[in-house]
Amino acid sequence: MTRSPREAMGFEKDDPRGTLADFLIERLQECTVPLEWEDRSIGFAVRRAGDDERPAGRPRLWFLPDDRGRILAVAYKPSRLTFSRDRFAYGALPFRPGQEAGAREDLESLLRWLHEDFKPALRPARLQRTISVTLPSD
Q1: In 3-state terms, what secondary structure has residue 90?
Q2: pLDDT per residue over 2-59, tens digit each?
Q3: Cα 61 from Cα 37, distance rounded (Å)
Q4: How far apart are CA 137 and CA 43, in angstroms?
Q5: Chain centroid, CA 129 distance in Å
Q6: How far apart are CA 51 and CA 56, in angstroms?
Q7: Lowest CB count within 10 Å: 93, 114, 117, 118, which one?
Q8: Is 128 helix (H, G, I), strand (E, B) or coil?
Q9: What is the pLDDT, as a whole number, of residue 67?
């Protein structure tokens, strides 16, 4: 990733979500399974390292701010069609500033789910299947 978490999210220096973004990045960097980082027009995405050698449509987590003061981790798979920009979203998990203690568990469950190709049995308990957010087309 070429930008800092605050830059990727577009946060001002005094925005409390910047501290949360830093916290999430640190936890992602501590992950025992290697991740690859992808810059997005807003926010950033992670996927398992080596997935570029596997078929398209592998799971990703896209971290981006919403208009309610949260950071969303959107679970999705890009289309398997090379000409398509469609994505299939599985839901999102909201992270709120000041709730970093619970965020660690939520992030660990998301990463476990990511590494298992979004198996239904491992779906995080707090994952929201419906979200009111417009994802930019990257």
Answers
A1: strand
A2: 676 667 778 877 787 888 888 888 888 888 888 988 888 888 889 888 766 555 568 9
A3: 10
A4: 12
A5: 14
A6: 8
A7: 117
A8: strand
A9: 85
Whole-model pTM: value is 0.84
**Distance between CA atoms of 107 and 132, rounded to whole angstroms?**
21
| Structural fold of domain 5-122 | Yope Regulator; Chain: A, (3.30.1460)
Closest by alpha carbon to 48, among 106, 118, 104?
Answer: 118
First-to-last alpha carbon distance for the chain, in angstroms, is 15
Rounded distance, CA 73 to CA 66, Å?
10
DSSP state of 136: P
